[in-house]
Design brief:
about 190 residues; alpha+beta; 2 domains; 6-stranded mixed sheet; two-stranded antiparallel sheet; 8 strands; about 35% strand; globular
């Protein structure tokens, strides 16, 4: 049988451990910035979230992309995967949403203003899971001719209140790897 001193010592130890855990959790919560809140109109439908993604990542006039808005469309666990060719060989670069936003911030800080616009789309739906195959054109703001074309494969999930992007995989065209005509709007 334990005496009062053993019980007291055990309680004090539990309180010290609980306090230390509370401080650690609190410190971790302070280090991690709050996830940006999405505009309700951006996440109401599959169409609105896809168009918001293109709008947010594109520069307009003298302003760069709206990266807070862009980030708000994704789950914090989202992955962005570039499977375009590098030096003539297939390559894959996988980033978290934060890594992607950080990389875009560096590139757009002093670089030319760029845009990306959807020109065609195919959508498959199964319950709360949607897969969008989105053909796009991209280029420099003010240049009437696009720099190129690509396809974004966008996976989305409906959580009961809004749409979230859970992954985007894309491939931009490269010499010998042009976007097939069937993925362009009809008549083009």
């Amino acid at each position: 049988m334990m005496n009062w001193r053993q019980v007291w010592t055990g309680l004090v130890r539990m309180l010290v451990v609980a306090g230390a855990l509370g401080l650690a959790v609190g410190a971790a919560a302070q280090e991690k910035p709050a996830w940006p809140e999405a505009r309700p109109a951006d996440v109401r439908t599959v169409n609105s979230i896809v168009l918001a993604t293109y709008d947010a990542i594109s520069s307009t006039g003298s302003h760069g992309p709206d990266l807070n808005r862009f980030q708000s469309l994704f789950t914090p666990e989202a992955r962005l995967i570039d499977v375009s060719y590098r030096n003539g060989k297939p390559a894959m670069v996988v980033r978290t949403i934060q890594e992607f936003v950080d990389a875009v911030s560096k590139v757009t800080a002093n670089g030319p203003r760029r845009y990306e616009r959807e020109i065609s789309r195919r959508t498959e739906t199964y319950g709360n899971l949607v897969q969008v195959w989105s053909t796009n054109k991209y280029g420099t703001v003010g240049d009437p001719k696009p720099a190129g074309y690509g396809i974004n494969s966008i996976a989305l999930n409906w959580d009961g209140t809004r749409w979230w992007i859970i992954a985007v995989t894309w491939k931009n065209q490269s010499p010998g790897q042009m976007v097939p005509k069937r993925y362009f709007p009809r008549g083009k």
